Automatic annotation (TrEMBL):
Keywords noted in UniProt: ATP-binding, Ligase, Manganese, Metal-binding, Nucleotide-binding, Purine biosynthesis
Pathway(s) served: Purine metabolism; IMP biosynthesis via de novo pathway; N(1)-(5-phospho-D-ribosyl)glycinamide from 5-phospho-alpha-D-ribose 1-diphosphate: step 2/2
EC number assigned by the record: 6.3.4.13
Main EC class the enzyme belongs to: ligase
NCBIfam families, sorted: purD (TIGR00877)
Species annotation: Schaedlerella arabinosiphila
Protein name: Phosphoribosylamine--glycine ligase
Cofactor(s) the record lists: Mn(2+); Mg(2+)
Gene name of this polypeptide: purD
Presence of keyword Phosphoprotein: no
Length: 423
């Protein structure tokens, strides 16, 4: 098969590395890709939102399967365009990708179908939002409705912060049109867990659990980011929690989308909060998490391409997912200053060390070639992933491996997976 992956981050590198193991794959392309993905795929200079060019390329190269990794093209309808051109594509159509594309839609869906989530109200009028906040309990959560690179969520400790948050999202439009509508949500406390799943429109198969670290600084301080590291599995995701989620959240979400005439095929990411009142859905994503994919896919025993095809063909019920009996930790190496202002173009050294050690991978998130050198090209640069027999061992291995890599402005959190010690 000839496979095209759409995207350029660590998630797409993890997808490419997993797909490359499949005997079904003869040739892989990635648009636009990065310096790490180039090891597995021929990178082509087409942006993820250039739908016409992607369709034309897929036709010209007789691509057998397209895997769309990123949220923007999914929400924008790339799957619809490719399918209309007769190209097999993995990912939800536009009317199903709204599960991630509109937080107001997903919250209303959960309310309608009794899927456990935080209490909330949706607002399109900033004055109405401000009036509501006058009577609210704090802390409280404000969410821009649309896509905001994982950064459109503000946790406000008091009324003054909340008023500033409304200004930021709805009036100053810090997150662009994503802030045309806003969700005001009850602040939940507990352990966060991420569960990725494959869906074929009616059947769901969940993957192993993971936990992300969103904040830029140690101790969960600083600004929200796209993710500074993750570990898998989560020791807090017990069998009891899993059974509850299977009964009241996972299948319920798939059935709800089908009932709404929006059958979902692809990956649903469940962001959960394990509260005293039981698990609740914080958010849905309509694709693999980043950096969750970097710890979940390396542990998956199944042939990714076979699973993807089962989703497309509606026969996922015949597939049982299998994962290695071990653990993985990913530590993101970022550019100092991320997620605000940072410099790019620093040469990266030490990448060859990962070829010398089994159980270690370095996923590229923001890199490019500068001649024959690989240089930094983003806020999140690399995801250093290591396996271990236990979470503690995987964490030690991952942090040891971060020392192999050097580049100017290198920054990382030093407490990824620290919660493991409290389990």
């Amino acid at each position: 098969m000839k496979v095209l992956i759409v995207g350029s981050g660590g998630r797409e590198h993890a997808i490419a590395a997993s797909a490359a193991k499949s005997p079904k794959v003869k040739k892989m392309y990635c648009a636009p890709g990065n310096a790490g993905i180039a090891e597995y795929a021929e990178c082509v200079p087409i942006g993820a939102m250039e739908f016409d060019k992607l369709t034309e390329f897929a036709r010209e190269k007789k691509i057998d399967l397209v895997i769309v990794g990123m949220d923007d093209p999914l929400v924008g309808g790339l799957v619809d365009e490719l399918e209309a051109a007769g190209i097999r594509t993995f990912g939800p159509r536009k009317n199903a990708a709204i599960l991630e594309g509109s937080k107001a839609f997903s919250k209303d869906l959960m309310k309608k179908y009794n899927i456990p989530t935080a209490a909330f109200e949706n607002f399109t009028d900033p004055d109405a939002a401000l009036a509501y906040l006058e009577t609210a309990r704090f802390p409280i959560v404000l969410k821009a409705d649309g896509l905001a690179l994982g950064k459109g969520v503000l946790i406000c400790q008091n009324l003054e912060e909340a008023k500033e948050g409304v200004r930021t999202i709805m009036l100053d439009k810090k997150f662009g049109s994503a802030g045309n509508e806003m969700v005001v949500e009850e602040f939940l406390t507990g352990r966060e867990v991420s569960v990725l799943s494959f869906v074929d429109g009616k059947t769901i198969r969940t993957m192993t659990s993971a936990q992300d670290h969103k904040r830029a600084g140690d101790g969960d301080t600083g600004l929200n980011t796209g993710g500074m590291g993750t570990f898998s599995p989560s020791p807090f995701y017990t069998e009891e929690v899993e059974q509850f989620c299977e009964k009241y959240i996972y299948q319920a979400t798939v059935d709800a989308m089908a009932a709404e005439g929006r059958p979902f095929k692809g990956v649903i990411f469940f962001g959960l909060m394990l509260t005293e009142d039981g698990p609740k859905v914080l958010e849905y994503n309509a694709r693999f998490g980043d950096p969750e994919a970097q710890v979940v896919l390396p542990r998956m025993k199944n042939d990714l391409i076979e699973v993807v095809e089962a989703c497309i063909d509606g026969c996922l019920g015949q597939v049982e997912l299998e994962f290695e009996d071990n653990a993985a930790v990913c530590v993101v190496l970022a550019s100092d200053g991320y997620p605000l202002k940072y410099e790019k173009g620093f040469a990266i050294s030490g990448l060859e060390k990962f070829k010398e050690h089994e159980g270690y991978e370095c996923f590229h998130a923001g890199t490019r070639f500068d001649g024959d050198k690989i240089v930094t090209n983003g806020g999140r640069v690399l995801g250093v992933t290591a396996k271990g027999r236990t979470l503690q061992e995987a964490r030690e291995n991952a942090y040891a491996a971060t020392e192999w890599v050097e580049f100017g402005n290198k920054y990382m959190r030093h407490d990824i997976g620290k919660a493991i010690d409290e389990a």
